[in-house]
Amino acid sequence: MTNQTSWEPKIIAFLCTWCSYAGADLAGVSRFQYPPNIRIVKVPCSGRVSANMILSALKSGADGVLISGCHPGDCHYISGNYFARRRFGLFSNLLDFVGIEPGRVNFSWISASEGEQFAEVVKTVTERVKKLGPATRLVKKQSVQVDRL
Amino acid sequence: MPKGSVLVVGGGIAGVQSALDLANSGFLVHLVEKTTAIGGKMSQLDKTFPTNDCSACILSPKLVECGRHFNINLLTLSDLVSLKGEPGSFTAVVRQRPRYIDPDKCIACGLCAEKCPKKVDDEYNLGISKRKAAFLSFPQAVPLKYAIDPDHCIWLKKPGKCGACVKVCPADAINFDDTEKEHILEVGSVVLALGFSPYDPSSLDFTGYGRLPNVVTAMEFERYLSPSGPCMGHMERPSDGKEPSRVAWLQCVGSRDINRSCHPYCSSVCCMFAIKQTVIAKEHAHGDFSSSIFFMDMRTHGKGFEDYYNRARKEGVNFHRARVHSVLQGKEEGDLRLRYVNEQGEICFEEFDMVVLSTGLEVNKQTVELAKMLELELDDDNFVKTDVFHPVSTSRPGIFVCGAAAEPKDIPQSVMEASAAAMEAGRILAPARWQETTVKDYPLERDVHAEAPRIGVFVCHCGTNISSVVDVDSVMEYAKTLPDVVFAQTNLFTCSQDTINQMVNIIKEQGLNRVVVASCSPRTHEPLFQETLRDAGLNKFLFEMANIRDQDSWVHRDEPEAATIKAKDLMRMAVARVRGENALPYNTVKVVKSALVIGGGIGGMTAALSFAGQDFPVTLIEQTDRLGGNANKLYRTWQADEVQPYLAETIKKINAHPQIDVRMNCQVSDVGGSVGHFTTQFSDGHSLIHGVAVMAVGGEAYKPEGEWNYLYGKNPNVHTLLEVDQMLIDGQTDFKQTGQAVFIHCVGSRIPERPWCSRVCCTHAIDSAVKLKDLNPEMDIFMLYRDIRTYGRRERIYQEARAKGIIFVRYDLDHLPSVNEANGKIIIQTHDPIVDSDITLHPDLLVLATAIQPRQESGNLSKFFKCAIDAHGFLLEAHMKLRPVDFATDGVYLAGLCHYPKPMEETIAQAKAAAARATIVLSQDEVPAESITAQVFDAKCTGCGVCVTICAYSAISMDEDKNVAMVNTDLCKGCGACVAGCRSDAMTLMNVGNEQLMAAVEAAFI
Fold it and tell me: In A, residues 108-147, which contact B (CB 8 Å cutoff)?
């Protein structure tokens, strides 16, 4: 939607299979409504998400990125979310350096039993990204012009 | 040697679960179902509480698995007519009525039903709609084969008169000469899963049922709500098709009623059933919607139920504590007028558009007849008799029972018992495991790596779950325009057996080499579709799902356009992802055939004996120096069986069994490995290699504090229920000096800090009160309660208590009883809502029914085994409805109070069920292991060793010669931490590499 008045952000969410993806399913079975702006990509673990993947999402045209895993200590793969936490702590500095506004890339911990929390996080992140407006910093020139739905 | 096969009677969810557990652990199962298809009552439900899951959707994969299982012989339209012999060797005679349509020829095209001129009441829709004499009971029926109803078929009544079906059937499947067949089956044991009948309220005139068209039963209302029901999921009232906006639910119709229905017991499920219907009905309503529930006690005693109840109250459901006097014709045509007495004692009238009767569960007529034929004992309410210590055993050895045939109960409890019955039925046949079974051969997999992608896309309506929001056809049409997509279609239910079979053919005919299903969640349905790929000769990893229901249509109900755009995006992303996927090897792990059981209470000991009874070695660890756990503190069960003798006998069996290694004062300190091969370290320095683990770590009594202290620990006459039990066990106190006793219920339960119902305390408190009354009939006893939750047949002791003169006084959270003392004498003040005044009591004994809470240890243990815990600290099962003893982590199971508060019979059943589920693993020589593993590109690897330190499983090591990392795929769990951590992009996760993930991300923006 290139029309400024009806601009809606598109947000990529990398969710770990065991906690956050299950939490998103629970939001569904519980019918907690949330904005339709996110596109979920299932990954085995938040530790699977690399800085490269986040950058590529932004390059491809994402206005925001959400990465969510199990709560610290609850990782299905023992320690994957700790690596994720440390990696993203460092990574935010880089994002800041290259001019990505705080709030475009978001991290959260959502367990399999937190459907309501999932819906809340999606609402908050969508609002935050909406306020920031379309992401243009990393988008390849040509893809700005195409109709991004 | 006993026989290696089992007879399961009843094809509802309990029978299906039992059959699957048995067949998957090495027995041939004959599953006998009296109707034309399996699925039972659960298939007729629209949604299930407390998760609001679509009932047909979660049930369907089990039905399909049952229908195509190599070791389940499905006999529909069949009845067990005789059974002779003894455990290990029975001869059963099963009579199969004719179907008149050859199931081998029927292609389920439906032409016979379309052309059949004879319309009859559709019993699947409870007579609300019509079906034909040639019919299919429901769209996901298994087997998906039509049948002809001989009571109504014109030809069968007068041969030569009709025959329309014969003319149109393209498969030549109609066979009017079909006859009754008799099957003589040699089986080793029998499982009865006979289900229940909903109570027929026709005789209850005050309800208006049968007289006033807009009074319906709960089951009928369920059909009105169901997308496959007579109104296609549009809520309509029967008299004029108007959408109701004011609906009332009347509880306890045919339950807790000695006068009119002769059903003194509580039906256990109806309170939650009604609350669920208010939630779902509101979802169906287009305008304002108000719902009112008229109840006596709100019984939300199961896991997640109290939260659900609180949510309904918050969302404005009106709960009236009243039994409705009469349902009358309202002012407007079709409307209904309810007359009732409110809590203030005033007569009220209120108008509604529709009234739903929460009808109870009663025993099937056939159950009573069958029990007579099998010489089984029934209880006073005609349910199949069991006892607390043997919850799935009937009075006849070798015959087991599960589900609502033994007592009214909900689906998770029925599923648990079904697995428990499977364990018992299999245990006596253990030597004959795999003797009568056959192994499924998959067709040879096509090598597709050199082929260009040919992707097939299947878009699901899910009844109306998806298609009521998402424009499913446009998603399908759009799929056809995507590169490499050579086939796309929509399905009403992609998981139904016909679609699954059709999918196999389409994959073959279209030469598909990648498949995308856009439907529900891969967490529930991926295994079913992957199996379908294997049946079609495709590697199962060439598959992706787009979750357009749980993560789209259900969460964007009011934004159909945006939801459709999102569905297209998600589908396109799945297509992009699957395009880059490759066939992966089916890795396996050799199963270590032994079990670890954690926790030496009744649950743990029962599980240990279940394994040992099948000759599997088991290690039982207990953190204290005493076996028995909480059972050591219990005096007797609600059926008045003393616990201590049973406990002593169980401990004796444990200590004497050669296959059981008991370790006291022992805890888990570390766990490695996965299903089939765990390595566990203990605090005593020992370690164990085992194939499966059962967690039965129990729960603990809440110690009354703060607002809930009630002088506990301050006044010597204030005790908890367990302390009273101890006095009764010791037998030193005769209670002759106790003139008055008061029990306070819900001490620490159902409050914001602990918002669950502790399930057992009402029954326990009332039983203790009855015992005190027996010891000293002169004693005055007052029970201060919030809702009495003596569910199921426990209601009988509530009635007994009232008959004995025990007085029940209700309180609520706004008017807590106040407990003080003067000169050592207890003074209780509380408000009695019936006389609407404050009363003062001076008891000699105050008993507190305290909450059950999870132990801290469960949380620590769950981390070792990578299992989830819920918001309250109880262990979280894989699925609340259909996988109540499994964890999402394979090879680990749970039982007892660590799951949720429950009485002993339920802990025993759950422990046996956990053993049954674990036996499926232990009975195999090898189980599937992770196929999605990490891989190193030697050429890119710099040998920095970061991945070696990152890997939590020590699966990566350095090849010193080549100076590159190497992955041990046996140890790799496929988390991908090493991939994200690699500095030189040398590491990938098969099918979850950057290639596939980034393709999916990029596809979101095309």
Answer: 111-114, 119, 143
